[in-house]
Each structure stands twice: as structure tokens, then as C-alpha cells.
Design a protein that fits this description.
single chain; alpha+beta; Nucleoside Triphosphate Pyrophosphohydrolase; seven-stranded mixed beta sheet; two-stranded antiparallel sheet; 9 strands; binds adenosine-5'-diphosphate-glucose
């Protein structure tokens, strides 16, 4: 575990356990990060077993993820770091045309297979875009008239591959490595991550590139308190057996998942899944 992850996980763990001990309450009520001293005091107060069980509470609870209120819409600021709308002009077969586009980041996604437990590792998170897709017909101009009882936020909690945007100039496999640690809590060297293929997302609006990676992890690669996202991210890590994963791909399903997720699962089942027992 790197120092950064240790401090981050101690801070989050202590903030989760607001009633567990005085030091937890102290860290929880302040905006400062926890220190190694906090961790030491906490360990002496609650014993090492208390810390371990504390770390297990680290992953995001669905109630926190779905605690969504005060939804409303506004215009996109011109300095958005994530989405830049513009118009693309061209002449095709002698005819003037144009297309309205979004400049967005390219991205990576990773199929993670835990070989110790023979489980695929996925993430769940609340996706504003999916929620908007669900409610857009009756949300009103500013989004304030949404009936939250009719459309609970849980409807827009997606099941996805671990993924992330390419927002810094490092090899994409290293970005994949960071996402596997930050979102799912497995610390693996980049050499263990295999590049599978790349494809275009959002061909109607962005045409951004996504590269799919594959990594096999073991229980021993797990950093106890890592995973669940960094900063303000609320991500739940879930595991699916091969049988459960196969059921996701059944005809007639309507999934709250992006196509890249289904592609990744089907790629794994076709190319890497251990054969089903007769
Ligand atoms: N539009 C936006 N508005 C505001 N904040 C934003 C934002 N996009 C990203 N962010 C911020 O950037 C953080 C990091 O995002 P990630 O790298 O985890 O990508 P994400 O998982 O959203 O999408 C990844 O997973 C999905 C599903 O596979 C892919 O479609 C996608 O290309 C890939 O990056 C988010 O937690 C959020 O704070």
C-alpha cells in the first residue's frame, strides 16, 4: 500500500466510523485528512481487530450512493473539463453538411477476473446521464419537477466494468492500473494487465476511443481499504460468478449498463472463462 492510499483509507475509514471512538469522531468532524498519529491512537483504542473490521466497512454503501436530492439542470459552463460541445462542418459528395459534436476524454475499461474466487469484479455507481435518460420526458426545463418517488435514484445505478477517463499523459495501461486500484482495490503491476482491443464510443456525438484491458487478480492483491473510488466518488464493488455473468447476456434482458460492459463480459466468456462444468 502506498503512503497516499494508507492515509486516504485511514481518513475514509475513520470518517465512516463516526461513533466508533473519539478519534474517529474527531477526524469525521473536521475536514483535515487523518494522520498516522490518528491511526495509531485509533488502533490503541480499538485494537487491531477493530481496525480490520473498520476497513471492511470502507466500500460504499448503496444508501449513501442513492442519497440524491436537489436535482436541477443548468447550462454547460464553457470551461467544463469533461464535455466541450461544438459544430463540425464538412462537404460530402458536393453537399454542405454539419454535425453537432461533443469533445470528451478517451477512456480505458478493464475486465477483472478474481481467480481465487472465480468471480468477475464489476462496479456500480449512480450515473446522472442514465437518470436523465429515464426522467427527461417529465423533468421540465430545469429538471426540478422530477417525481423522486416514481424515479428513485436506484434506477440509475449502473453495473459497469472498472473504467476511467484518460486525463493525463501516461501509458493507458498505467491508467488502467490506477483505476483497478482506486475503484476495485486490487494493486497489480501494469505488466499483468493485458490490452485486448480498442473501439469507438458515442459514434453519433463524440467518437471517443476506449481501450479494453483484461487482468486476472488474486485475493492477495487486494489492498484492504482501497477501492470504492477516490475523492468524491461513491463506487460499490460487486462480484459475479460466471453463471451470474452468463445470465446478464441472455436474450431479452434490459440492463442498466453501457455496451462496453456487455462487450467486455461477452469477450471474457468467449475467450477466457474457464469451461463450464458438465
Ligand atoms: N461528464 C462529467 N461531468 C462531471 N464530472 C465528470 C464527468 N466525467 C468524469 N467526471 C469526473 O471525473 C471522475 C473520474 O471519472 P472516471 O475516470 O472514473 O470515468 P467514469 O467512470 O465516469 O467513466 C468511464 O466509464 C464509462 C462507462 O464504461 C465510460 O463510458 C467512460 O468513457 C469512462 O471514462 C468522476 O468521478 C467525476 O468526478
Amino acid at each position: 500500500m502506498t503512503g497516499k492510499y494508507f492515509i486516504m483509507s485511514i481518513t475514509r475509514t475513520l470518517k465512516t466510523l463516526t461513533t466508533a471512538s473519539p478519534v474517529c469522531r474527531q477526524v469525521a468532524s473536521s475536514s483535515r485528512p487523518a494522520t498516522v498519529r490518528d491511526a495509531t491512537v485509533f488502533v490503541s483504542q480499538r485494537s487491531i481487530f477493530g481496525l480490520i473490521s473498520c476497513c471492511k466497512l470502507f466500500s460504499t454503501s448503496s444508501s449513501a450512493m442513492e442519497d440524491i436530492t436537489n436535482i436541477h439542470y443548468g447550462p454547460l459552463p464553457a470551461d467544463s473539463p469533461y464535455v466541450k460541445p461544438f459544430r463540425f462542418y464538412y462537404t460530402q459528395n458536393g453537399k454542405q453538411k454539419n454535425w453537432d459534436l461533443l469533445k470528451v476524454h478517451d477512456s480505458v475499461s478493464i475486465v477483472i477476473f478474481n481467480v481465487t474466487r472465480q468471480k468477475l469484479v464489476f462496479v456500480k455507481q449512480f450515473r446522472p446521464a442514465v437518470y436523465h435518460g429515464l426522467v427527461s420526458a417529465e423533468a421540465g426545463e430545469d429538471g426540478r419537477s422530477i417525481d423522486m418517488k416514481k424515479f428513485p435514484p436506484s434506477l440509475a445505478v449502473t453495473l459497469e466494468l472498472c473504467a476511467g477517463i484518460v486525463d493525463k499523459p501516461i501509458p493507458w495501461v498505467d491508467i488502467a492500473r490506477e483505476e483497478v486500484l482506486e475503484e476495485c482495490g486490487y494493486d497489480v503491476l501494469s505488466e499483468r494487465i493485458e490490452e485486448i482491443m480498442s473501439y469507438r464510443s458515442g459514434v453519433g456525438t463524440s467518437g471517443s476511443l476506449q481501450t479494453l484491458f483484461y487482468v486476472e487478480v488474486k485475493d492477495e492483491d487486494k489492498v484492504p481499504a482501497a477501492g470504492g473510488g477516490v475523492d468524491d466518488e461513491l463506487i460499490e464493488v460487486v462480484e459475479y460468478s460466471l453463471e451470474e455473468a452468463r445470465k446478464l447476456t441472455a436474450k431479452g434482458n434490459v440492463l442498466t449498463s453501457p455496451p462496453s460492459f456487455l462487450f467486455g463480459v461477452l469477450w471474457f466468456l468467449t475467450n477466457r472463462a474457464p469451461p463450464a462444468k458438465a
